Structure of Exo-alpha-sialidase:
Amino acid sequence: MTGMAEVLLAVGTRKGLFLSRWPVGQRAARGWEFTGPHFEAQAVYAFSIDRRGDGPPRLLAGADSAHWGPSVFHSDDLGATWKEPADPPIRYPRDTGTSLERVWQLQPGGESEPGVVYAGTEPGGLFRSVDGGESFELVRPLWEHPTRRDWAPGGGGLGLHTVLVDPRDARRVTVAVSTGGVYRTRDGGESWEAPGSGLPQGAHYGPVLRDALCTDDAEPAGIYFGNRNGEVYASADEGDSWQQLASHLPDVLCVRAAVLG
């Protein structure tokens, strides 16, 4: 397969990670073979392929060991070997009074920030790395947001499960918390705000699932999300204002959008 473009397919399961590589031109053929399980008997809830830079892509995996707990691993040789830092890469500061329960999301930053990686975790914390995912620090301004006191675990826990980085401006990041709502920053995480007018105010118990928030690639970017109350909201101005598109749908499990033509 040397010199031929390949697809790298990663599948995270409750019992490890499975990887497969196959030529792009032969994707319809039979014979895909998987290696693994990597992280045997560990649940893999988060995975990312960081293709920034000129070197080989870096693979990032959030694996959860029943004995050692959750951690983040990285590979620079397409999964042949994996590395875990000697010190836990994600650790809640002692003064927060909590500890890491799960890594839900691993998201590389923008092209202008080649070492930045975000990690969305449970219980509802966002972490930021500047060394490609080898160490992370808690994003304090979001953790200390005034609305946090209203966040409460839903049926699936209190997970910060979605991180969207604006491809045009890496300082603009939007996140979703399972029962905490949607928040955005325009200054690289120094300050955070809940979206603007058009959304329910005060306590509104509409959990947003991990695949129910997305953006399009228009200018300015559109943002869309749905919740388990069957409501769908959209913003055409990067979250400054919102409109409700639907209010009586079944539970919203996923939302995706694209500009066509």
About this structure: The chain has one domain: 6-194. The chain has a mean pLDDT of 87. The two ends are 34 Å apart (CA to CA). Residues 75 and 81 are 6 Å apart (CA to CA).
